[in-house]
Write a structure and sequence with these properties.
The complex is a heterodimer of chains A (189) and B (828). By secondary structure, chain A is α+β, with helices and mostly antiparallel strands. Chain A has 5 helices and 6 strands. Chain B is elongated. The chains are: A alpha+beta (189), B mainly beta (828).
């Protein structure tokens, strides 16, 4: 391979067929350029275009509240098997005040150490329930609703005829709004 | 926090629907499908054992989950997701709990990649509207404690027919487990999921741990309970003991059975009716006759009568003690084997309480090994062992081991001559001096009187010399005089075969041309490293052996072979044949000058013959070369090329078939070219015995004026006087060409077929047939006659002259013609 291309011809003659330092630099520059051109676009080519999770500070406050209050284990126990709440801190509270028509409806709030939240609205009157599951990171919310049936022999509630939605159903939206208003009214957040 | 073992098993729903009457109560198909259910239950347990990671939930604090599979209802959203995640194919979603929907930690699977659903991915799916368009799988999930009563109760509480049926199925399944396994862990949760075409059973690992399935058999309905537990085995005083009675009644849950134990119990044991277990630690020996009873709610019962035998546990012992003597520098080993009347020997635990320094104990193999050093010679050390059985029986024992020097080996231990070799080699001589061993033996009154063995075995003056002749085993019998008593000891040593050396070299170039020199240095190696001597025998002195190499200097073709022999000191030899093939050297280019005088024509040919190809000059008339002919053109020799179609190899054996073709060109005018053609075929076939001679055949001909080529491309530009001028000049040329073409000797063809026989002294003679053909002269003469040839060789030059005389009819008459040839390097 000849690298003589008419540049500095006399010098080349003196160097004979040897490759000059200039030629080495030229080849290296070309190789680096090729590498940049063809390799750089490959980096991060595979990265997915996702939408960042929208955190809601409200749920952080809610998790903090539950985790910082004592476990109402005795009253929450009948719900644990039905909603997988074993080992979680849970509190059970009536939605309304005595005599306001909502005093029979209950909110069960439970949180795992990783701030995953479960909020259950249970109406023992008609047996209906809506449970919100809120993930600790990103605060993604899913809803589960159906009927809760009391098993006397086992002394626990168990779900039946339940289904799932992601907040699209009016009942689910209403339940979340009701819970937020309830905490605001009771706890100030 | 333990892990959850999800007992996960899938069966086709269609299989479950094979009951006789699907609309009737679920338990009705039980009788026809109990084998299926048993199979289901067994597989469930097997899966629970071997696939503990099929669910990722944690034990206790997490629900029992399984992965469900769902897809998007809207493929348009799927396309959007494919773009966002740069993936191919519509996504499917692996959801760990279909009851909770898609959550973080689930998996979105495309055709070419999988994406873990984290917060960002979940948000993306939500914003793209994917979550709301997930297909809702027909999942039915039921869960309760593993108690038949709980499942039956729930089946009555739920309103959905499918849930009702699922709970009933669970109750029946639990009942089958009870009947088959003698009980179920009723405090554990069990979940059944009907997901698409799969039936999935989930249970925590405690379910499996507590499941009683030691007695795997189906208890047929007998109208009464059946005790499944076997009678208890041996009891030992002071040892904790627990035995639990188990019974099954296909008609009733196990929890409903009541157990009773009748009979007096030894002191220390008590019956617990709640757990129907006999437990405690018996304190007195003896036998007690007991009866266990299991009774169901209707009063039907089953009994098991047995004798409870309690005795003192006998501690284990050793099957044999260790050797009391160890020899310094030699391995001492002992394998401890325990015996115990109450337990398997393998169940006895052996521990070393004390060991001499350097002794090693392999507890797994129960093997002691020891190389006592010389410094321990004369000392007595102690090995103390403890044996302990499963019932706590312990026995300690200590054994003294005396270390003696190697020279003090007692003959009672067996006089074992210690030879310095463990393996012999065939053909090698070995020598051994009894020396120190003999002295040590002498101190004990032992004298080595002789050694005998096969092949060459010599024992003289306390010195043993031997040389095994054959491979295999070499038995030496040592004869001792032990305090006046003769004693023999035989030692058998393996003898490795002494392999013959083998040649590691091969002849490289074996094909040579005459005159070339060649040499070969053979290399032979001995696998045992012995010295190898080499010899060679060659039939031809031109292939000489100088002690190290074969040297070939052959000027003549032929096969030169030699037999090489490599020998080791034991006389084992191997040989190698080598052969050189010396071929005739390539001859240099042959030059031939030939002259033929026949029919008044004298042709000359000069040829350079390369062996296969040929090139040369030919002229039918030497005096015309360079002169202008009738057409005005100068004549020049023909240039011809040709070849020997029989090839070079045949040339060496006197066979040839030359074929030549040539052309000559003349230019009478700048626009006219003429030319001549020549050809020649010459064949020669020499008899294998050259004395007989050979046959020659030849056809040689030429056409002096054979072709005319004119350039007429510019004729249309010629007009006026130029035409006349051109016509005059061109007609002169054409006239000359025609005259040449019609000359009598323009076309000539000579043919001959001759047989030549060698007369000796360079003379050859033989008959022949000749033809002369000159069409322009109307001569077609054929003659028959004889010829005489004289061929003289001077080094590489050959001169040959042939004179033929013959007669032919039809006007041919008598004629003589002559050919002469001078050649250099020619094979003919």
């Amino acid at each position: 391979m000849s690298f003589r291309r008419g540049r500095g011809g006399s010098a080349r003659v003196e160097m004979g067929e040897a490759i000059s330092f200039e030629d080495v630099l030229t080849v290296m520059t070309v190789l680096l350029l090729l590498r940049l051109v063809f390799m750089v676009p490959l980096v991060n080519l595979d990265k997915a275009k996702t939408i960042s999770a929208r955190s809601d500070k409200y749920w952080s406050s809610q998790a903090a509240y539950v985790l910082n209050h004592p476990d109402d284990s005795a009253r929450a126990e009948p719900y644990r098997n039905a909603f997988g709440l074993q080992g979680q801190i849970a509190q059970l509270n009536p939605v309304g005040e005595a005599g306001d028509g909502h005093d029979k409806i209950l909110f069960l709030e439970a949180s795992a150490p990783d701030s995953n939240l479960t909020v259950l609205r249970h109406d023992p009157g008609d047996g209906s329930f809506i449970a919100m599951s809120v993930q600790g990171r990103g605060h993604s919310v899913t809803f589960r609703r159906g009927k809760l049936i009391w098993s006397k022999e086992e002394s626990e509630w168990f779900p039946a005829s339940d289904s799932v939605d992601y907040g699209s159903r009016p009942e689910s939206k209403a339940m979340e709004i009701q819970f937020r208003e309830w905490t605001k009214g009771r706890r100030g957040y | 926090m333990g892990r959850v073992q999800s007992a996960k098993f899938k069966v086709q729903k269609s299989i479950l629907k094979t009951g006789k009457n699907r609309k009737s109560r679920a338990w009705e198909w039980r009788s026809g499908s109990w084998i299926l259910i048993l199979h289901f239950a067994l597989c469930t347990l097997i899966f629970a054992f071997f696939f503990p990671a099929t669910a990722s939930a944690k034990n206790g604090s997490e629900p029992l989950n399984h992965y469900g599979l769902t897809a998007l209802q809207d493929t348009g959203i799927g396309v959007k997701l494919m773009g966002r995640f740069k993936a191919k194919g519509q996504p499917v979603f692996l959801i760990h709990d279909p009851n909770l929907g898609l959550m973080q930690g689930d998996i979105m699977r495309f055709q070419d990649k999988a994406v873990l659903v984290d917060a960002d991915v979940w948000q993306t799916l939500n914003d793209e509207g994917a979550l709301g368009r997930l297909k809702v799988g027909p999942v039915l999930r039921v869960q309760a404690k593993a108690s038949q009563a709980a499942w039956e109760t729930r089946s009555k509480l739920v309103t959905g027919q499918r849930e009702k049926k699922a709970y009933l199925l669970g109750a029946e399944l639990l009942k089958i487990l009870e009947e088959t396994f003698g009980g179920i862990p009723s405090r554990q949760q069990m979940t059944m999921v009907f997901d698409g075409s799969n039936l999935i059973l989930l249970a925590p690992d405690e379910f499996l741990d507590q499941l009683k399935y030691a007695t795997v058999r189906r208890v047929p309905p007998a109208g009464k309970p059946q005790i499944l537990t076997a009678a208890p085995g041996k009891l030992f005083t002071g040892m904790p003991f627990r035995w639990q009675a188990w019974a099954a009644d296909p008609a009733e849950p196990a929890a409903m059975l009541r157990y009773t134990l009748f009979g007096d119990l030894p002191k220390g044991l008590a019956w617990d009716a709640g757990t129907h277990a006999l437990q405690g630690a018996p304190e007195e020996e003896g036998q007690w006759r007991l009866t266990a009873e299991a009774r169901n709610s209707s009063g039907a019962f089953d009994t098991l009568a047995f004798a409870l035998s309690v005795r003192r546990n006998v501690p284990p012992g050793l099957a044999h003690p260790p050797k009391p003597v160890a020899v310094a520098g030699q391995m001492w080993s002992y394998r401890a084997e325990a015996v115990d009347p109450d337990h398997e020997g393998s169940q006895v635990r052996i521990t070393a309480l004390r060991m001499p320094p350097g002794m090693e104990f392999d507890s797994l193999a129960r093997q002691f090994q020891w190389y006592p050093g010389d410094s321990l010679s004369g000392r007595t050390l102690e090995l103390a062992l403890r044996l302990e059985d499963a019932a706590g029986g312990i026995s300690d024992s200590a054994f003294p081991v005396k270390v003696i020097p190697a020279t003090d080996m007692l003959w009672s231990e067996g006089i074992k001559p210690s030879l310095p070799w463990d393996t012999l080699k065939q053909g090698r001589t070995y020598a051994w001096e009894a020396g120190a061993s003999a002295m040590a033996w002498a101190q004990q009154g032992v004298t080595l009187t002789g050694v005998s063995g096969p092949d060459f075995t010599e024992f003289k003056d306390g010195s043993l010399r031997l040389r095994p002749a054959e491979a295999g085993a070499y038995s030496l019998t040592f004869t001792f005089d032990v305090q006046g008593r003769k004693m023999e000891h035989t030692i058998t040593l393996p003898v490795r075969p002494d392999l013959a050396p083998h040649f590691a070299s091969e002849l490289g170039i074996w094909r040579l041309r005459a005159g070339e020199r060649a040499g070969y240095r053979p290399v032979a190696v001995d696998g045992d490293g012995d010295q190898v001597s080499m010899s060679a025998q060659a039939a031809d002195p031109r292939l000489a052996w100088d002690g190290e190499r074969l040297l070939l200097s052959a000027d003549l073709p032929g096969l030169y072979s030699a037999h090489l022999t490599a020998t080791d000191p034991a006389g084992h030899a191997s040989s190698q044949w080598i052969a050189y093939k010396v071929e005739q050297a390539d001859r240099p280019t042959a030059w031939l000058l030939e002259n033929r005088i026949q029919g008044g024509i004298s042709t000359w040919t000069l040829t350079a013959d390369f062996g296969t190809g040929r090139i040369g000059l030919f002229t039918p008339s030497l005096d015309r070369v360079g002169r202008e002919g009738l057409s005005g053109a100068r004549a020049w020799p023909y240039l011809f090329i040709g070849g020997n179609l029989l090839g070079r190899e045949n040339e060496k054996i006197g066979k040839r078939l030359w074929v030549d073709a040539g052309l000559t060109m003349r230019m009478p005018d700048s626009k006219v070219a003429t030319g001549g053609l020549m050809g020649r075929i010459l064949g020669e076939w020499t008899f294998p015995d050259q004395a007989l001679g050979k046959i020659e055949f030849e056809m040689q001909g030429h056409v002096n004026q054979a072709i005319v080529v004119a350039d007429t491309s510019n004729l249309h530009f010629i007009y006026g006087d130029a035409i006349l001028e051109f016509a005059q000049k061109f007609s002169h040329v054409v006239d000359g060409i025609i005259q040449e073409a019609t000359a009598k000797d323009n076309i000539v063809l000579f043919s001959r077929l001759e047989a030549w026989s060698r007369l000796g002294a360079g003379f050859w003679a033989g008959p022949g047939i000749w033809r002369e053909e000159m069409p322009n002269d109307h001569r077609y003469f054929q003659r028959i006659g004889g010829g005489l040839r004289y061929q003289a060789r001077l080094s590489d030059a050959i001169a040959a002259n042939s004179l033929r005389a013959g007669w032919g009819s039809g006007g041919a008459g008598w004629a003589v013609f002559w050919t002469g040839r001078v050649s250099i390097h020619s094979p003919f």
